[in-house]
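C-alpha cells please, single chain.
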Amino acid sequence: MRVGEKIVGVIGGMGPAATVDFMRRLVAATPAQDDRDHLHVMVDNNPKVPSRIAALIEGTGADPAPTLCQMAKGLEAQGADFLVIPCNTAHYYLPQIVRSVNIPVLDMVGLCVQKLAAADPAPRRIGLLASPAVHLVGLYQKRIEEMGLQAIFPSPHHESRLLAVIKAVKSGQIETRHHQDYTAVAENLLDAGADAFLIACTELSVIGPPLAAAIPIMDSLDILVEATIATARC
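Here you go.
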C-alpha cells in the first residue's frame, strides 16, 4: 500500500455479479507491477440487502436503507477511508447512507452526469439503460437536466423487457433472448433520438454494451472505477 493511499470500502451485493465485475474492473484499471501496487479494498458483498425493485417498483418490499447504513458503518469501523456503491438504484438511499458515517461516499450518479456534461462533443439526449426503479424515482433526470441535457427512457413496453434482462442477470440465467431484448431496448432509445447511451444499471454493465452503436456509450461502472482509483490515490 502506498503512503497516503486510502482504503476503499465497497457496499456491494446488489447484485453479487455486479460487485464482482466492479472488483474485476478495478483490478484491471489500477496501474500495478505487483500485488502491493493494487488498492486495499474491503467488500461487503451482501445479497441480503432488501430488494430495491420490490421496495421502489412493486411497493411490497422492506426498506433497504437500514441494511445499507449498517453495511456502511461496518466498513467504516473496519478502517475504510471512503465508500463506493456499485449499484445505481441503491443511490436513491445515498443521503441516508452519507448521514450514517463520518467518511466520504462517492456519488456514482453525480459522477456519471459530470462525465456526460464534460464529453466532447457533448451529447444532448441521453438514452438511459437503467432499472425502471431509476426512472420511477427520478434518480438521473433532474441532474441531467440541470446540465442542460435531456434524459430519454425506453417506452413502457421496452422498459419491462429491460427489467426482465436485469432479473436474468441477477439469477444467472441470461439467454440469447435477453441479449436480443437488450438490443431492442437500445434501438428504441435510438429511435427516440438518443445521441449517447449511459449504462446506468450495474447488472447491465455485467453483460456490456447492447449493440455496436455509432453514438458514445458510457458505463456507470467504469466511471465509478475511475473515480475510485483517483480518490484512493489523491
